[in-house]
Amino acid sequence: MKPDQSHIDRWLLARKQQRSNRTHALLLKGLLEGSVSTLSQAITLIESNTKEDIQIAQQLLSSLPEPKQTAKRIGITGVPGVGKSTFIEQFGMQLIKAGHKVAVLAIDPSSSRTGGSILGDKTRMEQLSMQPNAFIRPTAAGHTLGGVAQYTRQAIALCEAAGFDIILIETVGVGQSETLVHGMVDFFVLLMLAGAGDELQGIKRGIIEMADAIAINKADGENIKRAKIAKVEYDRTLHLYPEKSSSWQPKTAVCSALNNEGIDAIWEIIQEYIQVTKKNGFFNKKRNEQNKFWLIQTIENQI
Ligand code: GDP
After folding, report:
1. Inter-CA distances, 18 with 21, 27, 29, Å
2. What predicted TM-score, i.e. pTM, was given to this entire model?
3. How far is CA 248 from the centre of its chain?
4. For 201-256, what is each residue's pLDDT tens digit?
5. Which of 78, 167, 197, 273 is the most exposed place for a label (fewest CB within 10 A)?
6. 103 sits in which H/E element
7. Which residue's CA lies nearest to atom 5 of ligand 1?
8. How far apart are CA 215 and CA 245, in angstroms?
9. Residue 80 C-alpha to ligand 1 middle, in angstroms?
């Protein structure tokens, strides 16, 4: 008897389902073993537009176990050229040396960069990208702000499942993306330059208000003195803002990412923040609020 079309369709569907289950199981296993290539593959799936990929990605995301410990999420922003990638390279290396597993996710909703930029980012953070305990991934290009937000949240969950305990989220563009990142991180670092007015640096007051720490970068050579003056000025400005609900008074620091100076002090500030806000309950309160917000966003996006 010749099989009719409906038999063939059913058979094809069953095969597709089998393949998808197999892929999902392999991905989950690889991820939980901390495989960086599986993590990369899984993130590619959440970025994908094909129905089959989306299905596997959703299956994977919903089967992730609660992470043993959630990663610390740190946002890093500043205008192009301020030294974000140089800073992340040094900061990331320090964290790796201290035994952490570090993931770097970059966000740039306005970007027209394509998959090729993965290579670009690797050369941007040459040393870090070669570390087995580091994972660097630029944002998916061509997504809307809402799309990028959802993608980043999912990428964070995948990185956590793969055992990354520190996630650095870099905003490449200046503008709305800071607000977006602020809504998904525990701590927000703003990198600034001395001598360039806020206007020139394209930094809006709102972004300064969001910062938990301001680091004045390129504090080296002839710039050291100016950087120190800028630090005092920012200290003064920050004191004028109303107290944050975290009760945390934002700190300022000077650093030279190029010479790897002052970066450890910023890590100390972050650790102090975590200690203070865990003790006063703000750390978990903020996480809960963020989770609630993203749950509503995800539902809205799906509707
Ligand atoms: P991004 O666009 O914010 O990621 O900035 P980059 O990290 O690409 O740095 C832009 C330029 O500034 C590069 O030429 C870096 O070498 C340089 N740079 C970064 N950090 C420092 C620093 O601390 N001191 C000095 N003098 N130059 C730096």
Report:
1. 5, 14, 17
2. 0.88
3. 22
4. 666 677 888 899 999 999 999 999 999 999 998 898 888 888 888 899 999 999 99
5. 197
6. strand 102-107
7. 83
8. 22
9. 9
